[in-house]
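User: quick one - fold this with fe (ii) ion bound?
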Amino acid sequence: MNEVIKSFMDRKILLSPEIFEKIKEDSYSDIIEKYDDKNILVLTNELLEEKNKEKILELKEEYNKDRKVRIIKSYEEESGKREVKDFVSHFKSRYNKIKNILLNRTDLQNTLSITRGIEKNNENVSFIGIIYNKLITKNGDLSIILEDLTGKIIFLVKRDKECFNMAKDLVLDEVIGVTGLIRNKVLYANNIFIPDIPYTKELKKSSEEGYAAFISDIHVGSNVFLEDDFERFIKWLNLELGDEKHKEKASKIKYLFIIGDLVDGIGIYPDQDLGLKIKDINEQYEKLAYYLGKIRNDISLIICPGNHDALRLSEPQPSLDKNIAKKIWELPNVFLVSNPALVNIHFSEDFDGFDVLMYHGSSMHYFVDNVESLRLGNAKDNPSLVSKFLLQRRHLAPTHGSSIYATYKDNDPLVIDKVPDFFVSGEMHRPDELNYNNTTIINCSCFQAKTPYEEKMGNNPIPSIATLVDLKTRNITKIDFSENDK
Ligand SMILES: [Fe+2]
Ligand SMILES: [Fe+2]
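Assistant: Sure. Structure tokens for the protein plus fe (ii) ion:
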């Protein structure tokens, strides 16, 4: 012991009592090697933490430089108090971004501002605006108020019009284009345009072999967390389970995306603790870190949070907190990103890779409940329909109140400004997929059995399934890790 103290003193390092205690427990040489810094006079616990973080970051960078993972968009918290003007600039940014997409339509080339257009009479005009209000008239027509940066106008959609069905699906606060005839300051709509994603985007394929796997909603800590199924999944990834065909497939997996609700969390809803097996949030993440740490190191893990994770609820949710989920953050093959986030994978010198838009999906319930076509299409059980609806609106939560969001200065991070190759979500606890204009929509399963809350809400989860994509062919397979199957 004296030797150790002496060696620190030689380096002009004084030890705080808590470090002194630590040294007693830890390996001496480790500590000396890690904290050999002549400039540090008093080594405190905080300093030790800081130095550790730097070291881990350095190691991670070095370790991951050959991985084909690029984080394109990941949002951290914006500091500073929000004022009304920030709220306005957030909405202006949304309006302008989506307006620019809509202006590519030939029918909307001659769009006027509402204050100018409203003065015309018996003329055909077009507007681009945000839906301010929407109601059904006594005659069964739709009367919608549209707002742009200059003013508001009512547009009427007669129920015998071709665009009536489309108008029925319009939701508050979405940005649309509309053309029609102006008469007495009211627009009689002929056509409605949503921004949508283009038909022409080719189905991109990689010439290099590789698979991406997608899961979400693990809910570690819940007493209905399907631990055995999750363990089977990890064994399968590590080629310890399944026949040769399975092993061949698993061996090609290079990326594992986890789309939020990593743990069940604490205090997410009243009496949640009755449904918890692990009641401490740090322990929940530690347990998950234990599992993730078992996964083959050559698989890159790309992880975003969800509404059950220990973060603010407002979107974008920043990446997982390094202090709470320390053991996950320390895993060398882990990339932590925000919810939503845009990540590019599998690129090479002559291939620009695949853009994967990750969004946990908190807004989805609102649209299932409030959009007629989604309700009739049973989107609750077919969540890819909701994802498609959001892609078409080019926004992850178009209606104010469909999710909680943070306003960002001059930017609305929930706008889908870049068309992704993959749009992946969780939250609905049901696996589903759909090719929509060559964007692959994926909704993930979960590793949690039906909870009493889900029972009450009429949700029908299908747990323990992983979705795989062959990046060479874009073929999708789903593998069931539930007990009954084995
Ligand atoms: Fe969940
Ligand atoms: Fe969730």
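One thing worth noting: The chain has three domains: 2-53, 70-74+200-485, 103-193.
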